[in-house]
Each structure stands twice: as structure tokens, then as C-alpha cells.
Design goal:
0% of the residues lie in helices and 50% in strands. Strand 5 and strand 6 form a beta hairpin. The N and C termini lie far apart (37 Å).
Length: 121
Amino acid sequence: HVQLVESGGGSVQAGGSLRLSCAASTGTASGRCMGWFRQAPGKEREGVSLIYIPTGTTSYFDSVKGRFTMSRDNAKNTLYLQMNSLKPEDTGMYYCVAGRACTWSSSAFQYWGQGTQVTVS
């Protein structure tokens, strides 16, 4: 069983920055893809960014391109999401995910963290 623990959320004014972290309990056992999803109140979960672990290839949802950057520290089994130029519409619960395939469908990911709240005002 893989455990994902997020940290780094908080409240920030529009235009500010936050850095989220996701510590995984295992490395390759977490699957071939990791990433971040988010859910705003009253809305469905949506993908934010994905990383294909074998190649390190990253993908970003259109709404965050150019503002968010994801990276991974393999030695620490930790995933990061640097969020710059934050907007109120970025508000939501951010979840770290891990699974076998990189897809924007949340149902494809077997492992989810507990989430960390990001609030932009």
C-alpha cells in the first residue's frame, strides 16, 4: 500500500506563490505516473499536473500552464508543485495522486493523499 502525504497549502493573496510537497512512502511501487488534482467547492476534481516517472515528462492542465511547475526528487520520493501567480480560481483542495497511467481522468489513479487546502483571495 502506498501512502501519499501532502503539505504546503495555505492562504495567499492573488499573485502570490505556494509550494506543495507530496511525500510517497515508496518509490517505484507508487506506479508509473504521479501528479496533482484539485477540487474546488461544488466542482468536480480536475487534473493540474502529471509526471510520467520513467521519463520525467510533465504535463500541465491548460489553466495552470506557465504558472505552475512540478518536479520530483527521486532520492526523497517526494513530488513538488511550485505555484506562482496564483488566482482566486486556483482555490481548492489539492491532492497528490499516483497510479499506473498518466491520464487526466481521476478514476485512473489508485492512490490519493489526504489533500492540502489552497486558498487564494
